[in-house]
Design a protein that fits this description.
Blueprint lengths: L1 E5 L3 H12 L5 E6 L4 E5 L2 E7 L9 H7 L2 E4 L9 H11 L5 E7 L10 E2 L10 H20 L3 E6 L1 E3 L5 H6 L15 E3 H13 L5 E5 L7 H11 L17 H5 L5 E2 L2 H6 L9 H11 L2
Parallel strand pairs: 1-2, 1-5, 2-4, 5-6, 6-8, 7-12, 8-11, 9-10
Antiparallel strand pairs: 3-4
Helix pairs in contact: 1-6, 7-10
């Protein structure tokens, strides 16, 4: 099976790790902003091709055309998708049977703590959400014009062994901000990889799926749980208007609960970590 990953961050790596665990035989090629080189991941040799708006290794074209499966995890740049902008003629001529674009639930914007599903209004307010929605629209238009197989996964806030509340607490970066009725959804990276794996066998063109766990929560609830597991006293509350402008303050501009029913029903998938508690317990018991 020939896979091409645009970007090889933690989601792509967990996905490849899942494929290897399931004894899939892979030919793996990925893109990177670094110079083209051969690398090894989990005992698998793969090629990493230089790819950016400034420089593209032309050898990438042949590998894309040969790919059975294409995963796109590169974020948009200035509201445009770097893959379509630079390689639309190449991808148009692929024989791929599966393209997955990883988006984010930030495209929904603020819904004042109400539930959102794949049919809900998209009204992003953050730069990230606005750019993600533009990139989604770019992909949907492109695949319709070229009859290509696409699914879009809107990912909730990702946490993992590498990125979690324990890391922020130990680094002294964990703030507890009090904001009434502020909800957001999260998903463990292992569940993302598992759903990607299921979608190899069950795939429907032009579908959008929310990838999220079952329990939208407040940041406050997660932070307190992390401090409790570490047996540390939590810090005093930080007022919202004391936060500096930036990603953290943007985070509190939007409140919503992300519905994952479509994902679970279509892929017949039962979450490994249905709430943040199972996920954080696993990380705490095995990593921390």
């Amino acid at each position: 099976m020939k896979f091409f990953c645009f970007g090889f961050g933690q989601v792509a790596k967990y996905f490849v790790k899942k494929l290897l665990k399931e004894n899939y035989t892979l030919e793996l090629n990925v893109s990177s902003r670094q110079k083209t080189q051969t690398k090894t991941f989990e005992g698998l040799n793969f090629n990493s091709y230089e790819f950016s708006n400034k420089k593209i290794d032309k050898d990438i074209n042949a590998k894309i055309k040969e790919a059975d499966f294409i995963l796109v995890s590169i974020p948009p740049i200035e509201g445009k998708d770097i893959v379509i902008n630079n390689l639309k003629k190449v991808i148009k001529n692929t024989q791929t049977k599966w393209i997955t674009y990883l988006s984010a639930t930030s495209v929904y914007g603020n819904h004042n703590g109400k539930w959102v599903n794949e049919n809900s209004e998209t009204k992003p307010t953050t730069v990230n959400g606005i750019n993600r929605l533009k990139a989604e629209e770019q992909w949907l238009k492109y695949v319709k014009e070229n009859n290509l197989p696409l699914q879009i996964f809107r990912l909730s806030g990702i946490y993992s062994d590498q990125k979690n509340i324990f890391k922020r607490i130990n680094a002294g970066e964990a703030k507890i901000v009090k904001k009434e009725k502020h909800f957001f959804s999260r998903v463990h990276i292992e569940d993302i990889a598992n759903v990607l794996f299921h979608s190899l066998r069950k795939f429907k063109r032009n579908e959008i799926f929310n990838i999220s766990d079952n329990y939208p929560s407040s940041q406050e609830e997660i932070a307190y749980y992390g401090f409790k597991l570490l047996k540390l006293d939590p810090p005093s509350l930080t007022k919202l208007d004391h936060l500096e402008d930036g990603m953290l303050k943007d985070f509190y501009k939007e409140s919503k609960k992300v519905d994952n029913k479509k994902m679970k029903e279509f892929f017949n998938y039962k979450l490994t970590y249905p709430t943040f508690k199972e996920g954080l317990n696993n990380i705490f018991n095995n990593i921390v």
